[in-house]
Each structure stands twice: as structure tokens, then as C-alpha cells.
């Protein structure tokens, strides 16, 4: 096991009716910016619950944070905070609203061109330099409610880039599993697949001696496989909903990544597909993931076989045979979860995709990715072309 520091200061408040606790969690005597998306919180009653929990708070609202939040939109909120002496941000929404809020929090006091936060991947470590924020999660998928990372798109250049740092953990996150009842089926499917792939990015690397992390990762995968198909059909089932929400958080709150190698190339390539074609984040992962496992087969086959045996109970005459079956099982699961695993099934005019992705990675100096730094640009091209 490699050395690690584990730091996660998020006050994670889980369960039915917990939105009422907001009054204890939000600081008194500061103006609050309430950030949200396109209005789902009005339809499902979450907005009313938030307002009821904070009857006397001075709240200014900022709506319209879009899925795959845009730098250009978020900068309008940054301006409001700078002008209006706001001391706390309350994000109410899914990963996009929470990620957007992390960017807003970081950008308010940033000296210089705020796009550099994304382009130069500035790390925010000092909590005194960011605006504190809390979240009310409405869509389990990204883990953003309990991590310090975010993904923001620059509309002008069609780029989707990341930011983060230890100063960008939420102060608290309220996670009430009943809020998923209003999610469209497509978003429920996305949530399961995003969480599943987060575990795979941190688990499906090479065999190592961090036994507990492997077992935790495998148990999250097994839980998602067990409840995924059901929760999409029955989001009102509290047993399914609560296990889904907790699994999604556990998949990317930093725990399973400690002491082990991680990959993340499926996400890096997938982000380009969203930037180019606006394909839902999870759906890009379903397109790229299995082909990455195929192209990097020699590098990953031992871990693929372990995954096949322990998560899918597969047997076979050789490591290779079990590893191959494990990839096919994964594709089957993605299909069960409503994913279309070919790029051409998700977007049109895709012929130049591999050229564009490779060129962008080259310009950014992303020449070697993955747990062994052996996903070179040639491999990226092969993975993307295999995904057409
Ligand atoms: O905008 P509103 O009206 O709220 O509607 C949203 C949106 O249209 C809707 N929604 C959310 N909660 C709902 C609901 N509709 C009904 N009932 C509810 N309870 O769902 C739509 C999608 O929301 P969004 O926040 O975009 O989805 P998700 O949570 O999947 O977030 C995706 C974003 O997170 C990034 C992705 O790249 C993408 O930009 N990621 C962030 C990560 C992180 N911070 O660690 C890691 C991930 O890998 C991912 O990259
Ligand atoms: Zn993801």
C-alpha cells in the first residue's frame, strides 16, 4: 500500500427529512447566495423545504446553472458575490450545480483571469481564499457532495476542464434519498453508471497489496449491480434509493483511492465527448470505458480477472478468458442500465473525433495517462476509434 493523507472535512448529513437541519448548518448573520439549476427544485418541493428551513435568512438566488456548468454563466454569480457582500453559498442540485458552486467559491477572490483556474488547473488549498459553501444534493452520481473536485466547461472554446483543492470541500452536504423520486429515468441510469465508473477508475488498474481498498471498491460495485436496475424502475423504494445514494457518495469521496493507483483516462476522454457533442457525462463513460479496457488489456488483465471473479463470480481456464468475460459482463450491465455504448448511437458527424481528442491532449501536454502512464496518444486514438 502506498503512503497517503486522508482529509475529508465534509459534514455529511444523510437521510429522510434532513433538509430541515439547514438552519443548524448554515451560518447566521451572513448573506447567502442560493445556487440552483433549471428549476427541478421547484417541481419536486426541494426549494420549498430549503426555504422553510431558513425562514429568516437573507437569501439571494442565482438560477440557471446548466448541466455541464458553463464558465460564462458562473462568472455572473461571481460578480453578484463580489458586489453584494455575500458570505456563504448554498448549492441545491446535482453535480453540475455543486461543481459550478465550487468554481464560484474559488473564483470570487482569484486575482487574474478566472479561466486560468481551469486552464492552468490552479489548486485551492487555503480556505480563507474561497467563499464557504454547503450543498443539498438532488442527484446521486458524481460524489461532488463529498469531494473537492469540479468540472466546468468553457462555452467559447468547447472545453471541459477540472478544478479542485482541499479548500473546495463543502462545509456540509445534506443527502436525502427521497429527493431522487422526481429524477427522470435517464438521470437515474446516468447516476448508477457514473458512480460505477468512478469505482472502476480507482480499482481497475493492476493488482496490488491494498486489500481493504479492493474489497471496499468491489462491494460498491456489487451494491450498484444489485440495486441499479431496480432503483431506475422504483426510485420511491427507500431501501434501493438510500443504498444508491450512499454508494454514489462512497464511490468518489476519496476513500477508495487512498494507497492505490488510479486511472481516470476514461473520464478524461469522456469529458471531450461531452464538450464536443453534449452527450451526458455518464453516457460518455459507457462509450469509452469498455474500449479502454480492451485496448489496455495486457496492462489490466490481472485486475480484470480479479474483478470478474469477485464481482461477477466468473470462472474460466485462464486469466485472459476471465478478463475478457469480465469486459463483456460490464457491457451487458451498461446496456441493462440503458446505455448505448457506441459513439455513433449518441451523436452525429463523429468521424473526426479521434483527431480532435488527440490534438487537444497533445496541446495540453497530456501525453501519457492511466495508472502506468502508458495510455499514450496512440492508445487514445485507438480507444476513440474503437468507440465509433
Ligand atoms: O437543472 P435542474 O433543473 O436542477 O435539472 C437537473 C438537470 O437537468 C436534473 N435534476 C437534478 N436533480 C433532480 C433533477 N431532476 C428532477 N429531480 C431531481 N431531484 O438532472 C439534470 C442533470 O443534472 P446534473 O447536475 O448535470 O447531473 P449530474 O449530477 O450527473 O452532474 C454531472 C456533472 O458533474 C460532473 C460531470 O462532468 C457533469 O458536468 N462530474 C463531477 C465530478 C466531481 N465533482 O467529482 C465527477 C464526475 O466524474 C463528473 O465529471
Ligand atoms: Zn464521472
Automatic annotation (TrEMBL):
InterPro entries: ADH_Fe/GldA, ADH_Fe_C, ADH_Fe_CS, BDH-like
Cross-referenced PANTHER family: ALCOHOL DEHYDROGENASE YQHD
GO molecular function, one term: alcohol dehydrogenase (NADP+) activity
Domain Fe-containing alcohol dehydrogenase-like C-terminal as annotated: residue spans: 191-385
UniProt-recorded name of the protein: Probable alcohol dehydrogenase
Keywords: Oxidoreductase
Domain Alcohol dehydrogenase iron-type/glycerol dehydrogenase GldA positions: 9-177
Gene Ontology CC annotations of this record: cytosol
Keyword Oxidoreductase in record: yes
Amino acid at each position: 500500500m502506498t503512503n497517503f493523507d486522508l482529509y475529508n472535512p465534509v459534514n455529511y448529513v444523510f437521510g429522510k427529512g434532513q433538509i430541515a437541519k439547514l438552519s443548524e448548518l448554515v451560518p447566521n448573520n451572513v448573506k447567502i447566495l442560493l445556487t440552483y439549476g433549471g428549476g427541478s427544485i421547484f417541481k419536486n418541493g426541494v426549494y420549498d423545504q430549503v426555504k422553510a428551513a431558513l425562514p429568516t435568512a437573507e437569501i439571494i438566488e442565482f438560477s440557471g446553472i446548466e448541466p455541464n456548468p458553463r464558465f460564462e454563466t458562473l462568472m455572473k454569480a461571481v460578480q453578484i458575490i463580489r458586489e453584494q457582500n455575500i458570505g456563504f453559498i448554498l448549492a441545491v442540485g446535482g453535480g453540475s450545480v455543486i461543481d459550478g458552486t465550487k468554481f464560484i467559491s474559488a473564483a470570487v477572490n482569484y486575482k487574474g483571469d478566472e479561466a486560468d483556474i481551469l486552464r492552468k488547473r490552479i489548486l485551492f488549498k487555503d480556505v480563507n481564499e474561497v467563499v464557504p459553501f454547503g450543498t443539498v444534493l438532488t442527484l446521486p452520481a458524481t460524489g461532488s457532495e463529498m469531494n473537492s473536485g469540479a468540472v466546468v466547461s468553457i462555452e467559447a472554446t468547447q472545453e471541459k476542464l477540472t478544478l479542485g483543492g482541499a479548500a473546495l470541500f463543502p462545509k456540509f452536504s445534506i443527502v436525502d434519498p427521497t429527493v431522487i423520486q422526481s429524477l427522470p429515468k435517464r438521470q437515474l441510469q446516468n447516476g448508477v453508471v457514473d458512480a460505477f465508473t468512478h469505482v472502476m477508475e480507482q480499482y481497475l488498474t493492476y493488482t496490488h497489496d491494498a486489500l481493504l481498498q479492493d474489497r471496499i471498491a468491489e462491494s460498491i460495485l456489487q451494491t450498484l449491480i444489485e440495486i441499479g436496475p431496480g432503483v431506475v424502475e422504483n426510485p420511491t423504494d427507500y431501501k434501493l434509493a438510500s443504498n444508491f445514494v450512499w454508494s454514489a457518495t462512497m464511490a468518489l469521496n476519496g476513500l477508495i483511492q487512498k494507497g492505490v493507483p488510479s486511472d481516470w483516462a476514461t473520464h478524461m476522454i469522456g469529458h471531450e465527448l461531452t464538450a464536443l457533442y453534449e452527450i451526458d457525462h455518464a453516457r460518455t463513460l459507457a462509450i469509452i470505458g469498455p474500449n479502454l479496457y480492451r485496448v489496455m488489456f495486457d496492462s489490466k488483465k490481472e485486475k480484470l480477472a480479479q474483478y470478474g471473479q469477485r464481482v461477477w463470480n466468473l470462472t474460466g481456464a485462464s486469466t485472459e478468458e476471465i478478463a475478457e468475460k469480465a469486459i463483456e459482463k460490464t457491457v451487458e450491465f451498461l446496456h441493462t442500465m440503458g446505455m448505448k455504448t457506441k459513439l455513433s448511437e449518441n451523436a452525429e458527424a463523429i468521424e473526426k473525433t479521434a483527431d480532435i481528442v488527440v490534438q487537444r491532449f497533445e496541446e495540453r501536454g497530456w501525453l501519457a495517462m492511466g495508472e502506468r502512464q502508458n495510455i499514450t496518444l496512440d492508445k487514445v486514438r485507438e480507444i476513440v476509434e474503437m468507440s465509433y
